[in-house]
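go over both lines:
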Amino acid sequence: MGLWSEVGPVAEPVQIGHEAQAARWQAPSVVEHELYAAKARGDWAGYLDVLGRTLLFIADSRARLDVRPETVVFTPYWDTRVRSSCLAVFTPGMLPAPVADPVLVSRSLNWYAESWKEGDPPLLAVNPGSPCEAFLATTPAHRAVWRRHADRVFGGGLPQHQLSTLHVGGPLHGRLAHGLACAALMFVKNSEFWNAMAYHGGGYTDEKDRLRDHWGVTNRAEWQRTQERLLQAQMISGVWEFALGLRRSLALDFAGPIGVDHWRQVADRVLRNNAVKNAEARITAEGVTTAQPRDDAVVEAQVAGVQRLIGRITRYEARFRADGLLPEDKFVRTVEAWDYGRASGMARWGLAARYCTLQEAERAVLSAGRSSQANYRSWEEFSAAYILGRCLHFDEEEFGDWYGEMLAAHRVLTTEPSSPWLNIPWK
């Protein structure tokens, strides 16, 4: 145990025998490893630097947060070793599996420094009970030191585009790890644990906000519908899949690359033929029926829209090849990967927001992995398809953050030796 009892940025801790425990201990993630290493060498300034660039979680009542989600209540405990009231906070690698209640919320070290009030506990207990624990005094002078360290290392916010792995408590191999890795582009982009099945994200209220703001999901039923649509690849555009499927069929028929002009000509012909067929007489259970022919203006608009889409896809793929996302002779066959990858993420977001159980989330992650394997032949092929889907939806050919974020994450996942994409076989 480290008890930081001086105002200065470096102080001698009070040690209470963790030697035997530490000798057998494996840090769950790099954050806890760095905390332990700083503590072991007596580098309390370094310890605060690590705390300053991570989230610190506390437990709170789910019912209370549902009523007042913008608030945080401190619930102190008495620690007999230091004979003091303490507030326990935990780093991301030390979090337990989600339960119905209580839930966890996260704040930065700077937030704790600024929010502490008279009457709050005299000690902040960081990961109490672990070899990387420390007890930080909470006087105004001490909290001023917290702020200096947090301001110096936090900069523009939490880091991005880092591969973060949970070495204890998260699967590293097998089918579940494969399904989790299908969402790795997003999780690397956000520097979150790619393999945390027992997921808390940014905490209960933050994850509820994420689902409400980005997905319109505010309850269990809405989460279930969204999750199922993603697993069935029903949220991607049917027009995208029509265009890509047409090229895929042509490539099979002609046993080779398909020129963009050929692709466009066939798309034009198929759309116009479909418009005619839809107006033909048909025999149904109700008798002979004839649909009204489509208005010529509607057909022309559809043809023009698909022609523009083919141009967009072609230009994105050219950029993908230039950036190493696609081999020179390859193209994207389907963008279902975008839904499968998001389905893997949705399972965890729903768990963090308590819209599903851990078992339900695991089943969804496994299903996303199976569907991905059935439709793609490699992590690289899956990645290019996922990124194309994201760009078609968001990027508008700006090649801005929507593309750049994914390119950076792709490069991390295809080059870092500890990447799941380099350590988990596709099939």
Observations:
- The chain has three domains: 2-154, 175-236+336-423, 238-281+291-322.
- Residues 296-322 form the longest helix (27 residues).
- Residues 238-281+291-322 form one domain.
- The first strand starts at residue 2 and ends at 4.
